[in-house]
Amino acid sequence: MVQLQTAQNDFEELGISPAAISVDDPTQSQKTQRRLNLTYPLLTDPGATMATALGLRHEGGNPMDGSDIARPARILIDRTGRILWSDISENYRVRPLPEQILKEVAPLVNRTP
């Protein structure tokens, strides 16, 4: 999330508004947003409704208690709700760098990163 924050201006230059969605409850998400100094929205999906709709629900994936969690994903959705690009990982530690995302999505929004 912090890496995404460092590239927020680059995303905005492409007309992309970054946001993060977590299955954490709103209180925990607010604490995370403050702790990490995130200026983009950190949305909550505690019931994993969005994660389920996007096929990201990892049933029993929480190693601490076996609860359901969301798979780590980066998704570019246009204003009509169409998914233009996605990167889904099975490992929360494996995430593309903002530069890699920018390189992939710039042609989709017809701009140069």
TrEMBL record:
<dbReference type="InterPro" id="IPR000866">
    <property type="entry name" value="AhpC/TSA"/>
</dbReference>
<dbReference type="GO" id="GO:0016491">
    <property type="term" value="F:oxidoreductase activity"/>
</dbReference>
<protein>
    <submittedName>
        <fullName>Redoxin domain-containing protein</fullName>
    </submittedName>
</protein>
<dbReference type="Pfam" id="PF00578">
    <property type="entry name" value="AhpC-TSA"/>
</dbReference>
<dbReference type="GO" id="GO:0016209">
    <property type="term" value="F:antioxidant activity"/>
</dbReference>
<feature type="domain" description="Alkyl hydroperoxide reductase subunit C/ Thiol specific antioxidant">
    <location>
        <begin position="2"/>
        <end position="84"/>
    </location>
</feature>
<dbReference type="InterPro" id="IPR036249">
    <property type="entry name" value="Thioredoxin-like_sf"/>
</dbReference>
